[in-house]
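In response to the reviewer comment on reproducibility (Comment 2.3), we provide here a single inverse folding case reported in full, input and output, so that an independent group could reproduce the run without further information from us. The C-alpha coordinates appear first.
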Protein backbone atom coordinates (compact mmCIF):
# COMPACT_ATOMS: atom_id res chain seq x y z
CA UNK A 1 0.00 0.00 0.00
CA UNK A 2 2.76 2.37 0.85
CA UNK A 3 4.70 1.50 -2.29
CA UNK A 4 1.70 2.34 -4.47
CA UNK A 5 1.30 5.68 -2.78
CA UNK A 6 4.90 6.53 -3.37
CA UNK A 7 4.57 5.72 -7.06
CA UNK A 8 1.39 7.79 -7.52
CA UNK A 9 2.85 10.90 -5.92
CA UNK A 10 5.76 11.31 -8.38
CA UNK A 11 3.41 10.65 -11.25
CA UNK A 12 1.00 13.33 -10.00
CA UNK A 13 3.82 15.81 -9.56
CA UNK A 14 5.06 15.14 -13.08
CA UNK A 15 1.57 15.59 -14.50
CA UNK A 16 1.07 18.95 -12.75
CA UNK A 17 4.46 20.20 -13.95
CA UNK A 18 3.69 19.12 -17.49
CA UNK A 19 0.35 20.88 -17.31
CA UNK A 20 2.00 24.09 -16.13
CA UNK A 21 4.56 23.90 -18.92
CA UNK A 22 1.85 23.43 -21.47
CA UNK A 23 -0.11 26.34 -20.01
CA UNK A 24 2.95 28.62 -20.03
CA UNK A 25 3.91 27.67 -23.54
CA UNK A 26 0.38 28.29 -24.75
CA UNK A 27 0.08 31.83 -23.16
CA UNK A 28 0.37 34.45 -25.99
CA UNK A 29 3.13 37.09 -25.64
CA UNK A 30 2.76 40.86 -26.24
CA UNK A 31 2.70 41.52 -30.00
CA UNK A 32 5.98 42.97 -31.28
CA UNK A 33 4.08 45.00 -33.88
CA UNK A 34 2.63 47.16 -31.07
CA UNK A 35 6.09 48.24 -29.85
CA UNK A 36 6.46 50.92 -32.53
CA UNK A 37 3.07 52.43 -31.74
CA UNK A 38 3.92 52.50 -28.02
CA UNK A 39 7.27 54.23 -28.64
CA UNK A 40 5.69 56.85 -30.85
CA UNK A 41 2.92 57.48 -28.33
CA UNK A 42 5.43 57.74 -25.47
CA UNK A 43 7.38 60.39 -27.38
CA UNK A 44 4.18 62.34 -27.95
CA UNK A 45 3.20 62.14 -24.29
CA UNK A 46 6.69 63.28 -23.22
CA UNK A 47 6.44 66.48 -25.27
CA UNK A 48 4.44 69.03 -23.21
CA UNK A 49 4.08 71.38 -26.18
CA UNK A 50 2.27 68.66 -28.14
CA UNK A 51 0.64 66.62 -25.37
CA UNK A 52 -1.25 69.62 -24.00
CA UNK A 53 -2.83 70.34 -27.38
CA UNK A 54 -4.52 66.97 -28.06
CA UNK A 55 -5.40 65.33 -24.71
CA UNK A 56 -8.52 63.50 -25.93
CA UNK A 57 -6.82 62.13 -29.05
CA UNK A 58 -3.91 60.95 -26.88
CA UNK A 59 -6.30 59.16 -24.51
CA UNK A 60 -7.91 57.38 -27.46
CA UNK A 61 -4.47 56.45 -28.80
CA UNK A 62 -3.45 55.13 -25.38
CA UNK A 63 -6.52 52.88 -25.24
CA UNK A 64 -5.86 51.63 -28.77
CA UNK A 65 -2.19 50.88 -28.00
CA UNK A 66 -3.14 48.97 -24.87
CA UNK A 67 -5.59 46.93 -26.90
CA UNK A 68 -2.85 46.21 -29.45
CA UNK A 69 -0.47 45.20 -26.66
CA UNK A 70 -2.98 42.69 -25.26
CA UNK A 71 -1.80 39.15 -26.13
CA UNK A 72 -4.14 37.19 -28.37
CA UNK A 73 -4.00 33.91 -30.27
CA UNK A 74 -6.03 35.50 -33.03
CA UNK A 75 -3.35 36.97 -35.30
CA UNK A 76 -5.92 38.72 -37.48
CA UNK A 77 -7.45 40.44 -34.47
CA UNK A 78 -3.99 41.39 -33.21
CA UNK A 79 -3.06 42.88 -36.58
CA UNK A 80 -6.31 44.83 -36.61
CA UNK A 81 -5.64 46.23 -33.12
CA UNK A 82 -2.09 47.20 -34.10
CA UNK A 83 -3.38 48.94 -37.23
CA UNK A 84 -5.97 50.87 -35.21
CA UNK A 85 -3.35 51.79 -32.60
CA UNK A 86 -0.93 53.11 -35.23
CA UNK A 87 -3.69 55.17 -36.87
CA UNK A 88 -4.82 56.58 -33.51
CA UNK A 89 -1.25 57.53 -32.57
CA UNK A 90 -0.63 59.14 -35.98
CA UNK A 91 -3.90 61.04 -35.68
CA UNK A 92 -2.98 62.32 -32.20
CA UNK A 93 0.48 63.42 -33.40
CA UNK A 94 -0.93 65.17 -36.47
CA UNK A 95 -3.65 66.91 -34.44
CA UNK A 96 -1.19 68.09 -31.78
CA UNK A 97 1.27 69.38 -34.39
CA UNK A 98 -1.51 71.11 -36.32
CA UNK A 99 -2.82 72.88 -33.23
CA UNK A 100 0.69 73.91 -32.20
CA UNK A 101 1.23 75.35 -35.69
CA UNK A 102 -2.04 77.28 -35.44
CA UNK A 103 -1.01 78.66 -32.05
CA UNK A 104 2.40 79.68 -33.38
CA UNK A 105 0.79 81.39 -36.34
CA UNK A 106 -1.49 83.29 -33.98
CA UNK A 107 1.51 84.40 -31.93
CA UNK A 108 3.26 85.57 -35.08
CA UNK A 109 0.10 87.33 -36.24
CA UNK A 110 -0.26 89.09 -32.89
CA UNK A 111 3.39 90.14 -33.01
CA UNK A 112 2.95 91.43 -36.56
CA UNK A 113 -0.17 93.38 -35.56
CA UNK A 114 1.70 94.80 -32.57
CA UNK A 115 4.58 95.86 -34.79
CA UNK A 116 2.19 97.48 -37.27
CA UNK A 117 0.44 99.31 -34.45
CA UNK A 118 3.79 100.48 -33.11
CA UNK A 119 4.80 101.61 -36.60
CA UNK A 120 1.56 103.59 -36.95
CA UNK A 121 2.11 105.06 -33.51
CA UNK A 122 5.66 106.04 -34.43
CA UNK A 123 4.42 107.55 -37.68
CA UNK A 124 1.78 109.54 -35.81
CA UNK A 125 4.42 110.70 -33.33
CA UNK A 126 6.70 111.78 -36.16
CA UNK A 127 3.82 113.64 -37.81
CA UNK A 128 3.06 115.33 -34.50
CA UNK A 129 6.71 116.32 -34.09
CA UNK A 130 6.87 117.60 -37.68
CA UNK A 131 3.71 119.63 -37.10
CA UNK A 132 5.20 121.13 -33.94
CA UNK A 133 8.42 121.98 -35.78
CA UNK A 134 6.47 123.60 -38.62
CA UNK A 135 4.38 125.57 -36.12
CA UNK A 136 7.50 126.69 -34.25
CA UNK A 137 9.15 127.74 -37.51
CA UNK A 138 6.05 129.70 -38.49
CA UNK A 139 5.96 131.38 -35.09
CA UNK A 140 9.66 132.14 -35.35
CA UNK A 141 9.12 133.67 -38.78
CA UNK A 142 6.36 135.85 -37.34
CA UNK A 143 8.63 136.92 -34.49
CA UNK A 144 11.42 137.77 -36.94
CA UNK A 145 8.98 139.68 -39.14
CA UNK A 146 7.60 141.58 -36.14
CA UNK A 147 11.13 142.36 -34.98
CA UNK A 148 12.02 143.62 -38.45
CA UNK A 149 8.93 145.83 -38.54
CA UNK A 150 9.68 147.19 -35.09
CA UNK A 151 13.30 147.80 -36.03
CA UNK A 152 12.23 149.55 -39.21
CA UNK A 153 9.77 151.72 -37.29
CA UNK A 154 12.42 152.51 -34.70
CA UNK A 155 14.90 153.36 -37.45
CA UNK A 156 12.43 155.74 -39.03
CA UNK A 157 11.81 157.38 -35.67
CA UNK A 158 15.53 157.78 -35.02
CA UNK A 159 16.05 159.20 -38.48
CA UNK A 160 13.26 161.67 -37.81
CA UNK A 161 14.83 162.65 -34.48
CA UNK A 162 18.17 163.24 -36.25
CA UNK A 163 16.43 165.44 -38.82
CA UNK A 164 18.00 163.20 -41.48
CA UNK A 165 16.86 163.08 -45.07
CA UNK A 166 17.18 160.46 -47.78
CA UNK A 167 19.43 161.40 -50.71
CA UNK A 168 21.25 159.61 -53.49
CA UNK A 169 24.25 159.53 -51.19
CA UNK A 170 22.21 157.95 -48.39
CA UNK A 171 21.04 159.54 -45.16
CA UNK A 172 22.29 163.07 -44.65
CA UNK A 173 22.28 164.52 -41.13
CA UNK A 174 22.85 168.24 -40.80
CA UNK A 175 24.04 169.13 -37.31
CA UNK A 176 23.94 172.88 -37.85
CA UNK A 177 26.30 175.55 -36.60
CA UNK A 178 25.58 175.03 -32.91
CA UNK A 179 28.58 172.71 -32.49
CA UNK A 180 31.38 175.21 -32.92
CA UNK A 181 32.12 178.81 -32.15
CA UNK A 182 33.10 181.04 -35.05
CA UNK A 183 36.56 180.21 -36.29
CA UNK A 184 36.94 177.34 -33.78
CA UNK A 185 37.19 173.55 -34.27
CA UNK A 186 36.53 172.54 -30.65
CA UNK A 187 33.05 171.27 -29.83
CA UNK A 188 30.97 173.49 -27.61
CA UNK A 189 30.24 172.14 -24.14
CA UNK A 190 26.48 171.90 -24.70
CA UNK A 191 26.62 170.96 -28.36
CA UNK A 192 26.74 167.18 -27.97
CA UNK A 193 23.01 166.43 -27.82
CA UNK A 194 22.64 165.77 -31.54
CA UNK A 195 26.00 164.00 -31.62
CA UNK A 196 24.86 161.66 -28.84
CA UNK A 197 21.77 160.76 -30.85
CA UNK A 198 23.92 160.09 -33.89
CA UNK A 199 26.36 158.01 -31.82
CA UNK A 200 23.50 155.94 -30.39
CA UNK A 201 22.15 155.42 -33.90
CA UNK A 202 25.53 154.23 -35.20
CA UNK A 203 26.03 151.93 -32.21
CA UNK A 204 22.67 150.32 -32.89
CA UNK A 205 23.40 149.92 -36.60
CA UNK A 206 27.16 149.25 -36.69
CA UNK A 207 27.05 148.06 -40.31
CA UNK A 208 26.39 151.59 -41.52
CA UNK A 209 29.27 153.76 -42.68
CA UNK A 210 29.54 157.47 -42.06
CA UNK A 211 31.11 160.26 -44.08
CA UNK A 212 31.71 163.37 -41.96
CA UNK A 213 31.93 166.72 -43.70
CA UNK A 214 32.77 169.96 -41.96
CA UNK A 215 31.51 173.36 -43.09
CA UNK A 216 32.29 176.95 -42.19
CA UNK A 217 30.84 180.35 -42.83
CA UNK A 218 32.36 182.81 -45.25
CA UNK A 219 34.51 184.43 -42.60
CA UNK A 220 38.21 184.03 -43.32
CA UNK A 221 40.18 182.98 -46.34
CA UNK A 222 39.40 179.93 -48.41
CA UNK A 223 42.48 178.06 -47.23
CA UNK A 224 41.69 178.87 -43.60
CA UNK A 225 38.12 177.68 -43.99
CA UNK A 226 39.23 174.47 -45.72
CA UNK A 227 41.58 173.72 -42.87
CA UNK A 228 38.92 174.65 -40.32
CA UNK A 229 36.37 172.39 -42.02
CA UNK A 230 38.77 169.45 -41.82
CA UNK A 231 39.56 170.08 -38.17
CA UNK A 232 35.86 170.36 -37.33
CA UNK A 233 35.17 167.05 -39.14
CA UNK A 234 38.02 165.46 -37.19
CA UNK A 235 36.56 166.74 -33.92
CA UNK A 236 33.17 165.21 -34.72
CA UNK A 237 34.84 161.94 -35.73
CA UNK A 238 36.85 161.83 -32.51
CA UNK A 239 33.75 162.43 -30.42
CA UNK A 240 31.69 159.75 -32.20
CA UNK A 241 34.57 157.29 -31.95
CA UNK A 242 34.81 158.00 -28.25
CA UNK A 243 31.12 157.08 -27.87
CA UNK A 244 31.72 153.59 -29.19
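Designed residues, in position order:
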Amino acid sequence: MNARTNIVTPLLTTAIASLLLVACSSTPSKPEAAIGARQKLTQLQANPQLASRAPIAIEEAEAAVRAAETPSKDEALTSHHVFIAERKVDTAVALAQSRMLVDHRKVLSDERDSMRLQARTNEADRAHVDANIARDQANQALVVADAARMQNAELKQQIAELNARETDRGLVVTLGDVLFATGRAELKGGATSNLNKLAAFLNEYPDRTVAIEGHTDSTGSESFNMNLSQRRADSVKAYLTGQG
